[in-house]
Amino acid sequence: MDLTGIEIFKLLPKTNCGDCDIPTCLAFAMSIAAGKTELDKCPHLSDEARNYLEEASAPPIRMVEIGTGERTVKTGGETVMFRHEKRFENPPPIAFSISDMMDDKTINDQIERFKTLRYERAGSQLKAEMIVIVFNSQDSKKYLSLVKNALENTDAALMLACHEPDVLEQALQLSGHTRPLIYGADSNNIDTMLELAKKFSCPLCIKGANLEEVMTLAERATTVGFKDLVMDSGAKTIKQAFNDQVSIRRSALINKNRLLGFPTIVFPGEMTDDPLKETLYASILIAKYASLIVLNETRPETLFPLLVERMNIFTDPQRPLATKEGIYEIGKPDENSPVLITSNFSLTYFLLTGEIETSRVPSYLLVKDTEGLSIMTAWAAGKFSADNISEFVKKCGIEEKVAHRKLIIPGYVGFESSGLGCELEEWEILIGPREAAHLPAYLKNWR
Question: Dihedrals φ, ψ of 147, to 5°?
Fold first, then answer.
């Protein structure tokens, strides 16, 4: 944000009404400047002040929403070149490409993969979010049938890749209520595409042969007041795509070039015919700095690494990656299975679950919220000690799942066993190994 808290404060109503849930207007202004709250929280801000502040506080790369309801994805909105400076804001949606030239089996397989390739990690569901429907057949009926298929059988946000305005308008009449991304406006059809985008209130992707042409198209769109843009620089090689993405980010953030201040889209499958290289190129462009990735090849072994990479890059570096608190069943535990407890630091969780699976001993793993801190750090911070562990065990519901009363605690906090014994009088406290690698042997003889 370019404005300081004091500059923002000067434009506020200064009523100190607290309607924004912050006691004073000055504190509210400081929170806005720090990015901790939003202008919309103030119900008394004048329209003039609101418009000025929204323009001044807008991120250098515009945030664009594609889709509606459960189909909504956000892209762009970035404010820094490097993750450690603050954080990256919106993970780039990953899209599956489906052409109306594909046979029915290939189309159905692609849609089925979109629906089933979903993974749980650190309490989050990792998946692709979009489907790109490509008009190649020159048969409007086939294209519209494919649009209808994607609408009825998936929860995907859509991108309509069609250069025929008449066919595109028919597709938008079917899907416009879901606010698909329209692709792609070039120098030959920019005016027609803009009319359709405004008519159906949809975001628009502009496509140029190079950055200069993209800027020209962006200027034409913004001149008529249309700003929900995504940009395709037209790169056909990984080298050019990498250079374009870095140049766009630097120009928007450092040089304040508003004509390049929009999310970007890349097509790694157009840069190679090798599926493994497509995945490699996609991984490079997720890191530097594509806002939307379109894949031709979609297989579990290629999609999952990209989803994990994206999650790791787009977590807040100032906040530890945490797993959701709760009871996790590993294998198919029953009432006689062992019960272990740990913190919700994701690395600890994944190490433990891996070793428990290796042991082939079905178990219950209690994950306590420690704000993402590891075992010893959480203990030092007072978030993983006898009193709060015992409170969690009593409330989590594990007593209804097991017939025994034996709790295995991490070896590193074995000194809490006596305190836990007092807090959990019905439970026998067992001290587990200090290292996760020793769990398989321990669990086989845990009783």
Answer: -60, -45
Structure tokens at 136: 């190649």
What is the Cα–Cα distance from 384 to 421, expressed in whole angstroms?
Answer: 15
Q: Residue 207: enclosing H or E segment and its boundaries?
A: strand 204-207
Which of helix, strand or coil describes residue 145? helix
pLDDT band at 113; cut points 50, 70, 90: very high
Q: CA-CA distance, 178 to 111, in Å (whole number)? A: 18
265-266 and 229-232: which strand pairing? unpaired
CA end-to-end distance (rounded Å), the chain: 59
Structural domains of the chain ordered from first start = 5-57 (1.10.15.40), 63-313 (3.20.20.20), 326-444 (3.40.50.11600)
Which range (6-10, 367-371, 414-418) has the least confidence?
6-10
Locate 228 and state its tokens: 């929900």
Element (H, E) at 6: helix 5-9
Instruction: Tell me the Cα Rg of the chain.
Output: 26
Structure tokens at 212: 């200069």
DSSP 8-state class, residue 150: H
Which residue is listed with tokens 């002040």?
A: 49
- Of 338, 360, 337, 356, nearest in space to 348 by CA: 356
Tens-place pLDDT, residues 173-219: 999 999 999 998 999 999 999 999 999 999 999 999 999 999 999 99
In this predicted structure, what is the pLDDT of residue 2? 60
